[in-house]
Amino acid sequence: MKNIILLFVMILLISCGISTEPSGKRDKPTNLKAVNTLNDEIHLNWDDNSNQEIGFLISRQTGRSEFVIIDTTEINQSEYLDDDVEENEYYIYRVAAVFDDEISDWSNEIEILHQFYFGGLEFGTDETFDVVTWNIEHFPKQNQTTVDYVTYAILGMNAEIFGLQEIENQDFFYTLVDQLNSIDVNHNWEGHRAYSASYDINLAFIYKSDLVQVIDIYEIFENDNRPFPRNPLVMNCIYDTEEYFIINNHFKASGDGIMNLNDPWDEETRRYDASNLLDDFISENLPDANVFVIGDLNDELDDNSANNVFQNLIDNSSEYLFVDMDIAWGPNNYWSYPGWPSHLDHIMITNELFDEFAFSDSSVETILLDEYLDGNWGEYDNYVSDHRPVGLNLDLEE
Predict the structure, then answer these.
(1) 10 Å Cβ neighbour count for 139?
(2) 352 CB-contact burial (10 Å; exposed 0-12 / middle 13-18 / buried 19+)
(3) Nearest one of 166, 60, 231, 188 to 385, comparing CA atoms
(4) Residue 168 and residue 138: Cα distance in Å, rounded?
(5) What is the sign, positive or negative, of the torsion defined by CA atoms of 110, 114, 115, 119?
(6) Whole-angstrom distance, CA of residue 392 vs CA of residue 128
């Protein structure tokens, strides 16, 4: 069908004596952009600056070849999907408006390497409320390349809310949000990054704003940097008519594995105090709320009780549940921090959500992003992070 349409257009232009070289007499398309999609396509879009065109010509250059017109679009159609592409190939595109008696100048040229990451990745579902915690180490480790990887990872995971840690660069963070919106035609994405953390190692949220109504995002424990080197970041939101609070954290790192409660600056003690302060905050401010506590909590759930910084929360099983407890006690190839290896990234829920977690479609997993890359862990660690994300699918209505 493409070739038939193209042939018809070209015969029409030639028979009318219209040059296929741009005449420059009408407003040309501008701001041509190209992005790779998860469906192994390249998506083009541009600004339509005319009101008399009968369609647009799509012209493409591959490698060292000349530009070739590959297709046409209909009137007022200012986007195009090119599915005749090969991975790791460079393409250059340009578009022109076609009028009854002439062709406009060409738009700007845009070059793109057709490459997409995490093909086949699935996590979020339409039947569940999906929340992911992910430490994206020193984001972005490799600048725009990391942004590209993370874009496709987020789209592949397809959760409603991502609580992120170590988001160091604000400009690249909002570039990430823009890229999500440019590729995902089904959802609107928004992001919020804190700015208070030392060394710019900030917390952030990215979420589907067409599904998640954010009431407020705010920091807590702003004057308690001993237990909280990064202020916890709280999202108060509504999803499917229910209100939720998601508390995103990045606890103090390091330590010797031994908790010394006589030393307030002992790393384990700082994490222990942070856990107990979160308990106090929830009990005093959100006693009947649907609460998720997520983040890189930098310690293990399966430590012995004398050195377990989460022991008070674990013991309070009528109020709290670490949904990833089975991961912590399971095989280390499913842990979130393979470099040690250890399982450091957790999701805890309050008892208001216990019934939903018991439903059949609820599940939790460490999302093994590295297994979707040709270079496996080495590629992932080099371009993305040293942490894997941990995600919860919560079935709200069995």
Answers:
(1) 26
(2) middle
(3) 166
(4) 6
(5) positive
(6) 9
Q: Which two tokens stand for residue 377?
A: 């862990």
- Give this prediction's pTM: 0.84
- The span from the CA of 130 to the CA of 123, in Å, is 8
Classify 96 in phi/psi space as left (phi over 0), alpha (psi -120 to 50) or beta: beta
Q: Please name which of 38, 74, 72 lies closest in space to residue 54, comparing C-alpha atoms.
A: 74
Query: Are 368 and 338 spatial neighbours (Cβ–Cβ below 8 Å)?
Result: no
Determine the 3-state secondary structure of 127 from DSSP: coil
Give the single-character DSSP code of 104.
P
pLDDT digits (tens, 9 = 90+) for 127-149: 999 999 999 999 999 999 999 99
Q: For residue 119, what are its two tokens? A: 């093909």
Query: Does the structure show a pLDDT above 50 at 22?
Result: no
pLDDT tens for each residue of 27-79:
899 999 998 887 789 999 999 999 889 999 999 999 878 999 999 999 999 99
Angle at CA of residue 157, ends 155 and 161, nearest 5°: 85
How far apart are the C-alpha atoms of 138 and 200, rounded to whole Å?
9
Question: 101 pLDDT band (50/70/90 cuts)?
Answer: confident
- State the average pLDDT over residues 16-33: 66
H or E element, residue 267: helix 267-285
Rounded CA-CA distance 48/32 in Å is 10
| Per-residue model confidence as pLDDT tens digits over 273-324 | 999 999 999 999 999 999 999 999 999 999 999 999 999 999 999 999 999 9
Rounded to whole angstroms, the Cα distance separating 221 from 273 reads 12
How many residues does the structure list for the chain? Answer: 398
- How far, in Å, CA of 45 to CA of 32, rounded? 6
User: What distances in angstroms separate CA 386 from CA 144, 257, 291, 296, 377, one per listed residue?
Assistant: 18, 20, 27, 12, 9
Show the tokens assigned to 144: 């725009």
| Mean pLDDT of the 375-391 span | 98
| Single-letter amino acid, residue 250 | H
